[in-house]
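Lab meeting notes turned into a lecture example. A postdoc, R.K., suggested we walk through two folding results consecutively so the class can see how the record format repeats. The first protein's sequence and structure tokens come next.
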Amino acid sequence: MLSPLVEAFVQSPATGVVGFDGRFDWTKDGEPTSSGRLSVPGLDFVSPAGPVKGARGEIEFTSLSPAIITAPNQRLTVDSLDIGADATALDLNFAIDAAGFSIAGGSVQAGGGTVSIEPLVVPLDPTQAYSGVIVLDRVQLGDVVADSGFADKVMLDAVVSGRLPFTMDPKLGLKITAGALGAVQPGRLSIQRDVLTDVDAGGGGADVPPNMVEDLAYQAMEHLAFDVLSADVNSLDEGRISVLFHIRGRHEPPQRQELRLTVAELISREFLNRELPLPSGTQIDLTLDTTLNANQLFADIMAVNRARQGQKEPAPTPAPETGPETEPETGPETGPETGPEPEAQ
């Protein structure tokens, strides 16, 4: 009876100790009763999210049949979970009853801060949807960027807090709606030019060549020290997530830059035809529109975890057979975006 509850979460290889004591009581005329205790003094295993180290806890069951029900306020802890970036000190408070898996609260230390989940109920029926809220408290967003494959192209130092309301639907998958994050302290952003697409930079005037304005916008994003950063997070179709950043700060390159022009250059306007250094301290107001393929990102993380455990990749699903006169339809691409699409002002 317990196996269906854990088989989707506890996968091989698993090492450690797990104990269970249970009993059934009945009388000639009364209804049978049951109870039990699951003891986990220490268990390492592979979960769908990654390798788990040091799972511990004791779970009191007040019923084993016909429904599995626990006493209130059960607790499990985990030393670490490797999900591409290390997460430590997982703490989960929960109960199981006829309504489902009731999570009173859970938290994990990640990115130098805390990621927690507000109370919710996960139905035992896997066909039912549920919703909840993930809360970030002083989490280093740069760690997420570093683990997403852009570490050599994007450097982000941003400690953020915020809320990510979500809905999990078995048919539609995970959807984030009206998520909001904000930096709690100044930080820095550096984006290499080859990551950016569709730069729209304004404020140069009608007579200023667009290439010069775009070049200044690129310089602004290569060495940006910000005082204000916010992000609106929303799910899109086909497993994509939109993250719309709003950033205000200034240009701070490693070496101080100045823009010096002669009177003759100002009169002839020849300076408009050459590259110009963006002066240090230039104020910047940036809108950065990024799109992440969440499904592909999660799949890549799972593939890395399988490789770490020496597991083989699952065989690809064979394509359905088609008749000789049937042409396959070509749908929209769902691979990763080439990079963020910024708009600098």
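The second example is placed directly after the first for contrast:
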Amino acid sequence: MQPNAEQRDILDAIAEGHQHVAIRALAGTGKSTTVAFAAQQVLAGKSTQYLVFNKKNADEAKVKLPGMKVNTAHSLAWNGAHPDGGKISAIYETRRVDKLYGSLKNWRDPRFLQYLQNLKDLRLNRTTGIFLLQDIINGFCQSADTQVSGIHISDSVLQKIQIKMARLGNEDSMKEAMMEVVGMGDHLFSMMLDKRSDAPVTHDGYLKIWSVGNPRIPVDHILFDEAQDASMPMLQGILKQNDAQLVFIGDTNQSIYGWRGAVDAMLELKNRFSDTKIMPLQSSYRFGQGVADAGNVFLTMLYELENIPTEFRAFLRGVGNYDSRIGDGSRYPDGRRPTAVLFRGNAALLQAAIEGIDRGDKVFMAGDQAQEIAQFLDGCGKLFHNQFTPHPELRYFDDFSELKAFTETREGQGLKFLVNMVIQRRGCMDREIALLRNASNQHNADYVLSTMHRSKGLEFAHVVIHPSALKALENAKDDGEKIRFSDVAPEDLRLLYVAATRAHETLYENGLIRAVQNLDGLPSSVHAAINRLRDYSLGATPRAAWENLQWPAVPDVQFTGSPALDWVPDWQRARSPESPRMATGHYPSPTEKIGL
């Protein structure tokens, strides 16, 4: 395989020695292949560090790229230097823990014991005090901040504590309690930093400690993959490598983990270094132009909503060997039956799974979602019967009434359906848990169910966007007023972009496009992007697979209004003149396409 024109430009930029390169790799555009080209061609034999997101990715990369140094940021930090001297792995070998809770239960630090007593005086028990401390340290260790403060307590936890204190009739002490947590959090991190202390240290803790010093990565080139999901400490450590060429690659538009501290490292690279060269990967092999244009609708919305600079605007070109189409979900033609359904949250997902299994369908819930929901329902059932539950989502609730009150808040509304189900079943969830166990079998599944969040990285033949996704674009007050385009949350658009670009052949949007059109103040560029979808409806003129390669009507990087119609690629790939579906009449099963 040879690099395409976009990939060649990127390889040239790396070879020419541009010190800072940010690659905007859109969905399915060959990001991993581009990294492999760089490793095997322009960086072969050179001192290069390849940074990946997690250990699974690192293990895979080590097999595919033998001879290249491959690490996660955490493994670099673990083998790096402590700010006060010495090796982090040697200092924290006996102090490293996955979670703080277990170690803090037995910690005898005087300041910590006084903190627990102070919270007890405010009617917050020992368990709650430890979990609060764990939460604030987790938030701080994901940030770039140098001082622990109240902003590092998650909104969800704050809401749970407010409910608890209201039930105890102790709302006036909320501020005092949070001040105790902040003070203890600051003390705990200083003890974590202290080489002589016995304070436990989490993985994110030693990464934070590594980043605040003067970390050194002794290489000439650093390739940073999935850069849109970097944590600030991770990014801080990399940006301090002033002598190395920094090549960041990722898709800003798939940055959907901001809630856990992730930042877009590519934007940060440009903000820090004005000489950063922005380079797009736009030609997607995952789908044809129909699905590409559906993705472009949400890209256009994001760019307009966030006023993204022109140089950061890239749009999808669907060059995959597929006759991709967009359907409204009112019918599923033979040969285009759904192989995956994507949901906004767990409530609709669970309901669909149970209904499907009751019908006799062979349902598979992607990843470990079935197990996670089953564990939550089991924990809810225990809480309903006043039994102890160790489930992390339920650990702040002393009784079921507190959980019920939490579901009435903004942070807890996503749990409302599940909690109401527990109430209706009087806490007996054995049947639902058994059904969910049946939904964890991937073998011979009729179709796959997944939340949109968990679908990232997966791909399927024919995808249905469940109507629950429309909530992001509808007025929650249900008063007949349209929601303004400017009020749409960017994170919701990123999630919709991820969902829309999971399909190879067919995307069933189920009213999603109509919901977009109903937004008040929708920019003309979004209307123009939507109009292009008509060319790829189920009833439109059949398109040969090669037509997408020859005549894709796609916007160029400068697109801000009506799309350009004259783009023709300057490269061709060796390919069969027909798609696999056209040639054989066979659509891959959902398990063939899931990519796990």
